[in-house]
Amino acid sequence: MRSEFILVNELIAKTVKTSNCYRIINPIVVAPTVAAVGLAFFSYGFPQAGTCMEISIPQIALVLIFTLHLRGISIFGHHSFRIYAVPLSVTLTWIYASFLTAGGAYNYKGCNPKIPSSNILTDACRKHAYTMKHCRTDVSNALLTSAWLRIPYPLQWGFPIFHFRTCIIMAVVSLVASVDSVGTYHSASLRVNLRPPTPGVVSRGIALEGLCSILAGLWGSGTGSTTLTENIHTIDTTKVASRRVVELGAAFMILFSFMGKVGALLASIPQALAASVLCFIWALIAALGLSTLQSGQCASFRNMTIVGVSLFLGLSIPSYFQQYKPQTSLILPPYLLDFAINGLMSLNMVVTLLVAFILDNTVPGSQQERGVYIWSRPEDIATHPSLLSTYSLPRKIARCFGWAKCLGV
């Protein structure tokens, strides 16, 4: 198995002209773009969760009850239901699904489990195999076959393979992720009652996302690295925004990555249960994206039109382009026009960003109406020791990168 290491473009796209791009990115652009990221998966969420209603409905109901109806209940001084709504609801539903699996609710009912689903002839067995794939907790069989200790290493899936066509798409997608990150950085600073970061700090954070994407590609994860908008909700819920907590959590995640049984245990989560959780997560991302509109004038007809049109076209235009398959056998330039444009215009968040960006920067509007982000200046933060310690690099890392002035505050 060979991995396609195309994520190196993340670093390039995220660092080129970053300090200039953030000046023309504001909440009216960020809000629909982030919302489109969450809404883009509406066709996957409940259609996948609906394959196993007896699991998905309890999961969705539990996470909503914990986050909304029981959010004010305190247990030993902690709002446990609000803070641990997702892991607590997943654990309860997971145990419930395990009992259903062990009790024979998803047995093969006369169908041979050793026959691949592609070779099943009867419709009844094919339908039942599809249900079991989404409902059973023992589909992967990973707990029995996985090793207790496994050390991941770079290039473990083979040497990277570069494809120019996918590099183009990933470069544009990384730009969308950067827009999301800019809004997240600014919102996070407000949540913890700090002055907004400086342009240098913003550039440094986006560049670090690109570097982490390169590392993810080297280790063969197949996914990039970016700022998770939902962390804003996590800060609001837990009231914790400490570096030490993040460092400790990262240390545990690295430790667990060496334990094969931990990953195997997570692999036993039914697909319907995972899709049910994502129904909540993606909906929350869409809501958090729209919440950034509070920085501007929400009732402004200009802003309402830009957000509404960009969000609707961002969901509608990709549906049109997804009807056509690009002719990948063509060569440049028809190849670029066919594959790249079709691929990019099929992505909801890319279309939303393009429409919102063009409209917001061409339609006249005051800074107050647009809610333009205000960033701090390095000299302002230098006069506040607490801010300097928050936004500056750790001492040991700062010594290694002291030559790079752009990495400072």
UniProtKB/TrEMBL annotation:
Which N-terminal residues, if any, form the signal peptide?
none
Subcellular location(s): the record lists:
Membrane
UniProt keyword ATP-binding present: no
> What InterPro entries does the record point to?
NCS2
- Its transmembrane ranges are 21-44, 56-76, 83-106, 162-185, 245-266, 272-291, 303-321, 341-359
Pfam families referenced in this protein's UniProt entry, alphabetically = Xan_ur_permease
Q: Which UniProt key words apply to this protein?
A: Membrane, Transmembrane, Transmembrane helix
Membrane topology per record: Multi-pass membrane protein
Q: Which domain of life is it from?
A: Eukaryota
**Single GO MF annotation:** transmembrane transporter activity
Q: Which family does it belong to?
A: Belongs to the nucleobase:cation symporter-2 (NCS2) (TC 2.A.40) family.
> Per its record, how is this protein called by name?
Nucleobase-ascorbate transporter 11
- Classification of source organism: Eukaryota, Viridiplantae, Streptophyta, Embryophyta, Tracheophyta
